[in-house]
């Protein structure tokens, strides 16, 4: 009396007996498999080679993707270094906001950028970056624990940008002194491209920009 085996039982047996094909090597040449790549039946050995080639191809594609990401990260870090260097080379405190915004335009290709700071020293009270900001905007800024990215929903901060009516997506970065809960300002980036700043984008690099901007601009506070 024979027992009919299903494919799972056969697979389990072969898995538990890895020396089966060593003991029955003649079967390697006899077993024929349908190949989705060649469109014909091939030997088990040929099929194994096809599977290995596919695995190697997938690994090469992943490696290429990792190399591309690495190159992109290197380019971003080089831009970040150039931008930070420009802040360090600013000749005086009042030049810092302009240098910071100009660097975002020219180095990072951000179409629109501006900032507002509240609580500045008296000597800076009549500058463009200390213009009036509503209490609602300040409360919104204080509530940001990370950069906001997404569609422009008629935010007050968007109105601070040149050509505000064209802004479709926006990033808002709170400016803080260290770990202080209250912000002293807001850095605003805008674009007419609705996909430039999206809600699902990573914000790690924007956070670095915000932290560096905060450190550079804190010298303007009273």
Characteristic key phrases:
222 residues, alpha+beta, 4-stranded antiparallel β-sheet
Report on the structure:
The protein is an alpha+beta fold and 222 residues long. The chain is 44% helix and 14% strand. It has seven helices and six strands, in the order H-H-H-E-E-H-H-E-H-E-E-E-H. The chain has a four-stranded antiparallel sheet, sandwiched between helices. A two-stranded antiparallel sheet has the order 1-2. A hairpin with a 6-residue loop joins strand 1 and strand 2.
Unreliable spans are none
Strand content: 5-15%
Nearest-integer average pLDDT:
90
**Spatial strand order of the main sheet:** 3-6-5-4
Structural class: alpha+beta
Q: Give Rg in angstroms.
A: 30 Å
Largest sheet: 4 strands, antiparallel
Q: Looking at the structure, what is the overall shape?
A: elongated
Summarize the structure.
The chain is α+β, with helices and mostly antiparallel strands and 222 residues long.
How would the blueprint of this fold be written?
Blueprint: H1 7-16, H2 20-23, H3 26-30, E1 32-34, E2 41-43, H4 44-88, H5 96-106, E3 112-117, H6 135-142, E4 148-151, E5 169-175, E6 185-191, H7 204-217
Antiparallel strand pairs: 1-2, 3-6, 4-5, 5-6
């Amino acid at each position: 009396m024979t027992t009919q085996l299903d494919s799972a039982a056969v697979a389990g047996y072969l898995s538990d007996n890895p020396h089966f094909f060593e003991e029955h090597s003649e079967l390697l040449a006899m077993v024929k498999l349908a190949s989705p790549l060649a469109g014909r039946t091939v030997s088990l050995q040929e099929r194994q080679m096809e599977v290995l080639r596919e695995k190697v191809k997938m690994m090469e594609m992943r490696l290429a993707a990792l190399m591309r990401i690495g190159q992109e990260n290197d380019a971003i870090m080089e831009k970040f270094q150039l931008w930070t260097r420009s802040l360090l080379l600013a000749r005086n405190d009042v030049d810092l906001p302009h240098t910071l915004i100009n660097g975002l335009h020219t180095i990072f290709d951000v179409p629109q950028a501006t900032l507002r700071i509240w609580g500045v020293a008296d000597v800076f009270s009549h500058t463009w970056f200390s213009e009036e900001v509503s209490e609602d905007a300040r409360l919104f800024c204080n509530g940001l624990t990370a950069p906001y990215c997404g569609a422009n929903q008629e935010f007050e901060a968007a109105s601070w940008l040149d050509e505000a009516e064209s802004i479709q997506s926006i990033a808002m970065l709170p400016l803080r002194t260290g770990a202080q809960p209250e912000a002293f300002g807001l850095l605003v980036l805008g674009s007419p491209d609705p996909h430039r700043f999206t809600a699902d984008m990573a914000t790690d690099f924007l956070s670095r920009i915000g932290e560096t901007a905060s450190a550079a601009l804190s010298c303007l506070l009273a």
